[in-house]
Amino acid sequence: MASDRSRSPFERLKEHYDHEELVCPACGFEDEDGAWDAEADGADIVYTHACPRCGAEREHTLELSDRETALEHVEKRQ
């Protein structure tokens, strides 16, 4: 098992969502086998989860830095 030090804070946050935020606030279904998705664009990380029972979607967005500066940086590296 990997220690907390070997995972990034973003991986640890996803793990928290995967274990603690799987009860749908819309219908109460607990998605025990579910997981949150995470996508990053260089400026934000967006965590999303859709309830398999009712389809309700939830999202948490973390802004990493000034969006324009970060997107310019990502575009230059591509």
From TrEMBL:
<dbReference type="InterPro" id="IPR049696">
    <property type="entry name" value="HVO_0649-like"/>
</dbReference>
<protein>
    <recommendedName>
        <fullName>Small CPxCG-related zinc finger protein</fullName>
    </recommendedName>
</protein>
